[in-house]
Task: structure prediction
Amino acid sequence: MTLYRKVAAILWKDLLSEFRTKEMIFSMLVFSLMVTVIFNFSFPPGSEFIDDALPGILWMTFVFASLLGMNRTFVYEVDKGCLQGLMLAPMSRSAIYISKLLVNFVFIMLVELTMLPFFSIFFHLDLLGIIWPLLLVVACSTLGFAIIGTLFAAITVNTRTREVMLPILHFPVAIPIIIGAVQATAALLQGQGWDAVWGWLRMIIAFDIIFLVVSLLTFEYIIEE
Amino acid sequence: MKSTLGLVFVLLGMFSLDLQAQTARLVHYQGTLLDSDGAPFTGTTDLHFAIYTRPMAQQPIWSETHRNVPVNEGRYEVLLGSENPLSLSFYEYYLEVKAAGTDQPAQRVPIAGSGFNYRMQFLFAAYTIVWLAIFLYLVTITRRQKKIISELELLAQSSSSQVTT
Amino acid sequence: MQLQSRFERPVRAVGYLLLAAMVVNLYLIFFFAPEERSMGQIQKIFYFHVPCAWVSFLAFFVVFVYSIAYLWKKERRYDLIAHSAGEIGVVFATLVLITGPIWARPVWNTWWEWSPRLTLFLVLWFIFVAYLMLRGFVEDKEKAARFSAVFGIVGFLDVPIVYLSIRLWRDIHPSPVVREGGLAPDMWVAFGFSLFTFTLLFIYLLYLRVQLQKSEVALSDLKRQLVY
Result:
């Protein structure tokens, strides 16, 4: 079996099991909606600060939701002993990592894509005009979150305080993506040219590449027995 | 030995600083005054002085009006605090000068108040904290090390005595 | 693993050298270096604020190198060194974050500025603390070593990227910048010596901390042996 088919196999398994219960997606969505509404209440009504804060609100919502989702990635594997099964199967550790990465990416993207229309409605934004660059920014940033999130989730699933440990590890390391994503989104919303957006996007993509390589190199050390 | 090392340089540090702090009561100020055409003003005018703690602060912490200040070729000098005594205990101030009959105040100028000597307190605080932290860390490590070594010896002794019985 | 290190004598010599260096350093800072024109005496915080920052970076670099070494060779010693360096790094990063505001308050009239360097140090501090927390929260010692090694590597590689992103972010929101005056030659002497002293201090502390780690390991090994 080629790497592609192995990855596809695990990916399909995880997607299937999630779509049967829809637990994770649903909780992430409800959580995101709640966070967005609460953010709205943190500002005085009709305040002009909201416009400046919008990209930040958007991305904070996405970050929290993604952390929620990524926490679950390895929980079943470790708790039900599936991880040993995966490792006994004739596939490289990298295949496991890539498939988990893609699972996280798909789920977070689904939540984000669902949230964007809500943002548009709640905050009176015209997102359709900038939809393609926006999607590009969202995709690259989500990939970044997922790259380090998957790596760290594999670590934190073994710790005593799982749910808390992942944000603690993830947040400081994800700062470049957060800064880049917020600024790129702000540039898009303010109608700045592609150059401004590309400057930030470039940094996000560089981050993605660097940490993808590092994760692929170090993942095996995390799940070896 | 290691703890005395720490103690010594804490003491040395405390020796080397002077803690005298003084507050300024009078500030001698020289300024320039231009008229609305930008030419140096000559004559007498009332000048209103106010001191703020921040460039954009609305409320002055001190103000004083000097009447009939002689201005020669745009230059004047006053002794701030001569009518309303100053007791500046902050670190940096912004002085605003307003001439009578105008609406626009001159820019706020940063002046160093008595700040300089109070800065010594900050320097001393920072210094003490750094050395204290290093000292405490050293002491903690040494103490734990001693405790473990004594425990190790105790265990070694008891295990060897068990072997003999 | 042996407890009596063959470094015992040289380290004691280093200890005395360190004491002497600190005395000389104090003299250089407070009596030799001239007072800075615009800031006055408070500028002298610079002579230990910056070396603390340097030691933090050095500590983190040691964590990075020994994390890689541990994953590669799996020698326990490397893990102990990484752990110790991480701890010392947190101590010095905390000192940077304390002396920074103490310097800023009289000079800029504010306790905190989101300046690139100070912000970076805040993030660095969080990464270090997360590193130590990870070690604390994993049950199995061997797993803890592996996991923190991975995180140490990722964290260290992240630091320059974080700094870059903070700088770029600041460029669009410029705000009062510290007037970076040049240093007089005498100041360079005091500063250079300060760097030297703090580096020496770091090595000394690292050695002591690793020795403590080794003793703790020896103790737990012995206890386990006796139980069986």
